[in-house]
Amino acid sequence: MILYPAIDLKDGQCVRLFKGEMDQATVFSDDPAAQARAFAAAGCEWLHLVDLNGAFAGTPVNAAPVEAILAAVDVPTQLGGGIRDMVTIENWLTKGLSRVILGTVAVENPALVREAARAFPGQVAVGIDARNGRVATKGWAEETDVMVTDLARSFEDAGVAAIIYTDINRDGAMQGPNIAATEALARAVSIPVIASGGVSSLADLIALRDTGVISGAISGRALYDGAIDLGEALVALKGSSC
Q1: pLDDT tens-digit readout, 32-75
Q2: Active-site residues: which are they?
Q3: Residue 31 lies in a domain
Q4: Taking the chain, what is the end-to-end CA distance rounded to the nearest angstrom?
Q5: Residue 145: which domain range?
Q6: If you ran DSSP here, which 8-state letter would residue 199 be given?
Q7: Residue 38 sits in a domain of what CATH number?
Q8: Most exposed among 82, 83, 108, 188, judged by the fewest C-beta atoms under 10 Å?
């Protein structure tokens, strides 16, 4: 199972939100590129970036720090937030991103997800963010009546590389991930599922790995707070078959 250190970008800074609330942001670094270098030096296999302002604006806002990160490290990097058209998708992939994450448009314009997945095989993931099993969009500000599993299954034949599933109520709360819901989703679809939200200890990572069906986990606050030692976690997860 791959561990994805998270760098969430708000106003050019590296932050973590509490349960998705933009007005409850803790700043961990004003130099996202330096943070990326630190994660890379610890041996991470991937980085997970989110343009938080972009998620609300519907267009990239933190392009400069993202580009700085891409210039600073050679680690494969995925980005979500404000990516809602083919021009933006192509632009980011051309600049060196390994994978774009499409969230809001997966609900509002699923045809775009399919078009992008065909055009850029292996480089398009779907971000599914949910409260109580229902999908939320536009930076988690709007809740829909769409159920997580239904949305995920609708992309089974689209060729998407992964699904990033975030339980919003767990995100940044250091209360542990929703392992049951994430495992259920991973068993319901053939697309690789990456867990996000609430991963706060090495025990959480091992529990996710031990489901045998979850392909990755994203962690942010726990890495910044020191609750998870990245190097130790990478060693513990190494050799996992999932």
Answers
A1: 999 999 999 999 999 999 999 998 899 999 999 999 999 999 99
A2: 8, 129
A3: yes
A4: 5
A5: 2-237
A6: -
A7: 3.20.20.70
A8: 108
